[in-house]
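Reminder to self: tokens first, then the designed residues, so the page reads top to bottom the way the pipeline ran.
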């Protein structure tokens, strides 16, 4: 995620609560009994977010202490202070939580698709469960390719930066598809990941995707409340509600910012229907004389180069509101939860206007002639393949 600097207080807190993995040889454990639900946090923090990992992990522990039922909780973490390791958080009879390092790896590229798949396979084998939830925690930049020509820019991150190495969504999809797990939900604690291209690429790996179409502040998700949401079958919706309650638009003196934000929940099982309806709508209106419409559409990124716009607003402007009624019927069944504050940002990075009249909660790319490398990569994504549409403005 491209998380933003908040208060000095929070930075000092993060330094005091750094993550430490116990140095030990991996132990052989008997296979656990099958449990109803397993939550996996895959924290890639060997980057500028390294100080934010420990506070989130501590909040996960605090949330477990407040739960009334037991679930498996596994935290894979790689930060600047220790080697990659897998931590099991076990709730004791008295409500306290014990952390145990169950496996440690030598320093490696944890955004490598094969490595990520192996970690998830190990968890699947050692912690059998009726269902799984996955939290992908790091920097994020939606669908942008890992060989992006703007790679050297300090503000560009894709998904999962590990000491300069990055992962694009096609590689992420390969890792998830190879894991052997179909997830109840995949949550992105990372910026800009609620884009239709991302969701469509990984749709076969989960029932729901929980993500923000805009940036996520550096404190991330409200993990204490989020963990308590894990006890319910509609946990994907309760997690999103906890996020919206946390980023409620009010000023927070602890963090020194106005708590602005956005969150979306996407039903992966409906994404192919959305692609079909999108293609049909575009074919029916392919002769529309649409010139440069980008400037009037809600934008989700805050850079000089733009790659994420509001999908619903774009479709309305592209083909006309009178032609999108049936399309929005499908869209609204796909986007089962959408929340945003009217604006997002600060004086340091600038502000986004998330116009409530046109905001729909899912990002998309509007191709431009100047982004030829991006355009060629975009043609390799599954969303483009199934909608077959790439107007260049």
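Designed residues (393 positions):
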């Amino acid at each position: 995620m491209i998380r933003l600097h908040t208060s000095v207080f929070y930075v000092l807190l993060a330094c005091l609560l750094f993550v430490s993995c116990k140095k030990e040889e991996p132990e052989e454990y008997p296979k656990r009994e099958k449990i109803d639900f397993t939550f996996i946090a895959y924290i890639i923090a060997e980057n500028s977010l390294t100080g934010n990992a420990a506070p989130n992990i501590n909040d996960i522990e605090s949330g477990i202490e407040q739960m009334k039922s037991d679930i498996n909780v596994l935290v894979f973490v790689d930060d600047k202070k220790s080697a990659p390791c897998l931590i099991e958080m076990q709730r004791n009879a008295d409500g306290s939580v014990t952390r145990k390092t169950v496996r440690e790896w030598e320093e490696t590229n944890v955004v490598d698709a094969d490595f990520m798949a192996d970690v998830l396979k190990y968890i699947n084998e050692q912690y059998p469960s009726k269902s799984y939830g996955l939290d992908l925690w790091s920097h994020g930049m939606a669908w942008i390719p890992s060989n992006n020509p703007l790679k050297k820019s300090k503000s560009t991150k894709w998904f999962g930066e590990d000491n300069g190495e990055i992962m694009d969504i096609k590689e992420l999809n390969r890792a998830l598809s190879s894991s052997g797990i179909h997830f109840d939900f995949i949550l992105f604690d990372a910026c800009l990941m609620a884009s239709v291209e991302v969701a469509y690429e990984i749709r076969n790996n989960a029932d729901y995707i929980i993500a923000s179409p805009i940036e996520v502040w550096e404190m991330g998700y409200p993990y204490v409340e989020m963990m308590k949401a894990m006890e319910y079958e509609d946990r994907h919706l309760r997690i999103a509600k906890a996020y919206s309650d946390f980023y409620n638009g009010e000023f927070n003196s602890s963090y020194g910012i106005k708590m602005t934000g956005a969150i979306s929940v996407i039903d992966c099982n409906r994404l192919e229907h959305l692609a079909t309806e999108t293609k049909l709508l575009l074919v029916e209106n392919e002769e529309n004389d649409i010139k440069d419409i980008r400037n009037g559409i809600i934008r989700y990124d805050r850079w000089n180069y733009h790659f994420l716009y509001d999908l619903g607003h774009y479709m309305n402007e592209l083909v006309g509101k009178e032609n999108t009624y049936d399309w929005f019927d499908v869209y609204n069944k796909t986007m089962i939860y959408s929340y945003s504050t009217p604006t997002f940002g600060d004086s340091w990075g600038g502000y986004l206007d998330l116009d409530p009249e046109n905001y729909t909660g899912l990002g998309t790319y509007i191709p431009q002639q100047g982004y030829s490398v991006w355009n060629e990569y975009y043609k390799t994504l599954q969303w483009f393949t199934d909608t077959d549409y790439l107007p260049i403005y």
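Residues 271-335+346-387 form one domain.
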